[in-house]
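Case study 2.
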Amino acid sequence: MSLLADDLQAGTPWHALPVDECLDRLRSARGGLTRVEAGRRLAEHGPNELRGARRASPWALLLGQFRNVLVVILLIAAALSVALGHGVEAIAIAVIVLFAALLGFAQEYRAERGMEALREMAAPTATVVRDGEELEVPARDVVPGDVILLYAGDRIPADARLIEAVNLRAEEAPLTGESTPVEKGDEPTPDGRASTSIGDRAGMVHAGTAVTYGRGRAVVAATGMDTEFGKVARMLQRVEPGPTPLQENLARLGRALARAAFGVVAVIVALGLLRGQPLVEMLVFGIALAVAVVPEALPAVVTISLAIGVQRMLRRNALIRRLPAVETLGSTSVIGSDKTGTLTRDEMTARRIAVAGRVIDVSGSGYEPVGAFSHRGREVAAPGALGRLLRAATLASDAHVSRREGTDRWVVKGDPTEGALVVAAAKAGLHKADLDERYPRVGEVPFTSETRRMITLHETPGGLLACAKGAPESLLGSCRLVATDDGEEPLGPEGRAAILEEARRMAAEALRVLAVADRRGATLEDAESDMTFLGLVGMIDPPRPEARPAIERCREAGIKVVMITGDHPLTAAAVARELGILRGGRVITGAELEAMGDEELARRVEGIEVYARVSPADKLRVVKALQARGHVVAMTGDGVNDAPALKRAEIGVAMGVTGTDVTKEAAAMTLTDDNFASIVAAVEEGRGVFNNVKKYLMYLLSSNFGEIGLMAGAALLGLPLPLSAVMLLYVNLASDGLPALALAVDPPEPDLMRHPPRDPRTGLFTRPVVVLMAVGAAWSAFVNLGVFAWAIRAGRPLAGGMTLTFATLVLTEFFKAFNFRSDRRSVLAQPFANGWLDLAIAWELALLAFVIEAPFLRGPFGTAPLGAGDWLLAVAAASSVTPVLEVAKWLERRGWFGRLD
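Prediction:
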């Protein structure tokens, strides 16, 4: 292996080394490589592109859908039904299983597209120097040691060490989350630390980011999967999202029902054989019982319930990519939110202006030119020193603001900081286009990293006007006067000290501070001297106005919100405090995180509210630490740097407008309006979906166990079987069918968001739910067995007794459907609020009457006609389950059965 390869594998901290040492280690020169050497390195290191992880074949994905325990049991039941000549039951079961399997396959087949999106973000071409000539080559052909040329607007093709930088700024938000472009230079990091975070590596540029200003020359230090971008891609490949709480609960339920099904079949068949009944008849009956135990419609009902939740969420601006994520939202206990573009608008905004001895507040948020100026609560007019400052700041800027065509969204073309100045002036009625026409630019002194200021010259009726903006320390050195509302006065030492102190106060509030000055009657030669200081402008990427109420709703719902950002700690803390996220907890940086072991982080993670200057690996560690503490984590973000954490979290939330394709592909949910408040709406829908799945299972299993209790009780008492196999299958079809589906779309309960998130470790069935199910099942078995025993002992024919029991059992389950709309609230509270359930019960009642009373169905079902008295008896017996369940709920509300959900 070559020395160069050794350096690359060792992860050399290029940002901490002098330029000459970097060139020496990379076996390169300022004049670039030769074409021959570039070709050799391309063969050695491979193309500059991201490699995808091995993906499962479509056949493997499809076959994987049939590994569920419930599905296996149902397939066995279908096969036995076919063998015994019961084709209708077999077809019904097979169709349901196939439907659920195809839905699962379709979701998984589309789930892993993150790598394709990453590749699309790569730069298509790059300008390199080879054999002393500038060449444009495909970005995939760039190699370590290549010298690349960078200009404003270029997408950077690889990680590279700058060897020359002229006013160079790069937008690194996809990797760092930093909200403003970063100034770049060719000096090594001052402290020489190898662990310096990406956002602080001023001497490096990185693949996947873009040049926003200036120009530069750099030597490539890493390509393909060795770049910071590639490291994110590698993490994305390695992160395996775990099963959702609902998936884990259903898996446990499947195993339990499998054991119950085999046990019930074995016992009933054995008892029948001991009583001398034919083997084939008992096998058919055993299959019917197994189907009664196993809710064959469960996969379809869960899928339908989740799909309806998806549609509801879409109406509330949340697009779900993976159906189980709907339910996961309902158990979310922590939301780890990125700052830039998620909690904030990702639009620099002037917040405060210090001018003529006053500090003026600027209202409005983002790039929309709507707002006002006020001092101590009183509105301030723009003419005077304030208007002069805004005019100079706008003339010294190159950015333009406009409304995006066909939308209400305002956008900036150019530097975001300059955009904030232009928008502030527009709020005062000073529009960039009008000022440029009135004061045409005739010259400029460009910004440099040494002077840290920009000066432009403009024609005016009274001669040339110089306008300047830049760092306060730099610009003050060129000023002799200071503007007041009455004119100008000399700027002495005390005035300079006061200005610098005000700049420090603004910076302490996480504002980005620029100074503004001008000079009348200037020339290009003397524009940088004898200027008049106009004031300071403090800017920040402001919080979204709707974010704070949304965070407060999260707190009411027992959900903790933490900020996880690549931005500066001061900025992050200020925004977090304003939003109500930072309330006495800690703010820690990526460097502090690196110093912590995983166990220490897991111990301290509960007390941390803001993570700043973090890397993609740091975000992933935070998610894992929260999960280690038992939290269900939702992670939001919009940049490439967020993708691994989004994929690892139980629910990844991407921004639809500002988010990258990579983030959207890694996430389970995308916000179509980039509004943090939409997450709260999605959480509410998720809780509603989980409750509906629980209602369905609670009702269904209570009904099924009631059926099994009836059959087992009759066998133990020595009575004939109270239902035929066809009757049992019909009862199962009626209760598993439309009424159960109607419960899956039940309206959400009104107090849904006033409860803390459920603990996923408690499963679907808490103690109160199990008690309620058991009470319903036991009473159903008791009442129906009593009806059957009464009919037999009253001397009624067996067919008549079976028919009366059949009718009573079906009606009992219909009454239970209304009762199980809530495991807490009384059935008398809005009993008919679910219109779909009302229609389902009405339809099933008509079918029940038809099955019993139609003469041509009496043979297949083994039924006999019922008189009016029989129907009244059936209704009275069945309705008795309602007061029993009401008493159980009353006791539950008073805590008799343990903790409520």
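The longest helix spans residues 676-716.
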